[in-house]
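Handout, section B. The chain below has 239 residues.
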Amino acid sequence: MIWLVFSFFVAALCYSSAGFGGGSSYAAILAWKGVEPGTIRQLSLLCNVVVVSIGGLAGWRFIRRDLILPLLVGALPLVYLTAQWQLSGPVFSMILASALLISGIILLTEIPEAQELRQVGRIQLSFLGAMFGALAGLTGIGGGIYLAPALYFMRAARAHEIASVVTCFILVNSVLGLLVLSGERGWDGVAQFGWLPIVVACGGILGSSLLRGYFHELSIRRVTSLLVLFVALRLFLTI
C-alpha cells in the first residue's frame, strides 16, 4: 500500500513538472500489482484527468485548432466504442503489454525538433487520432505518449504547440473514456483505490507549481521507459 502511494505520487510529481499526465506509468504500476483490467483503465484515466487538469493546460493558448480538431474527430468515436469493450484478463494483458512495449521503445527514441514545419492533412491526423483513441479506450492510457512522437516525426508543429495539443488530446480522451467506463461498470472497483486521485493531485500540484521544469523531460522518459518495459515483459511472461 505504501509503495503504491509513493509510486503514484512520484509519477504525478515528475510528469506534472513537465506538463504531462503519466497514464502509462499508472497503468503499468497497477498491472504490476495485478489489479483487475477494468479498474486499471478507470484509475489510469481518472488520474490522467486529475494531473493534466492541474498543471497541463497552462499552454492552452498554443493549441492549434487545425491539429486538435481532426485528431479528436478521429479519436472520440473510437474512445467511446473501445471503452465499452469488456476484456478478459489475458486479452487485456496482451493488449496492455504490447502498448507498454511500444511506449517503452518510443520513450527511448530521441526525435529532434524540426527546423522546418510542413502541413499535415486532416485525414492523416484523423487516422492518428483514431488509432490512439482506440488504445486510450482499451488500455486507460490517454494516447499522448504515442501522439507526441508522431507529431514530431511528421514535423507538424513546434515543441510548445505539440505539448499543448497533446495535453488537450489526453484530457478529452481520458474524460470521455472515464465517463463511458463508469457508466458501464460503476465506481465499485475504483472505490477501494479512491485515495489514489488525491495522491496524484498532491503530486500534480507540487510538480506543476514548485518543480516546473526541474525534472528534465529526457530523464523522465528514460526512467519511465525502464518501468513500462519491465511491466510489459512481466505481462508477456504471465499471459
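Note. The chain has one domain: 2-238. Compare this with the example in section A.
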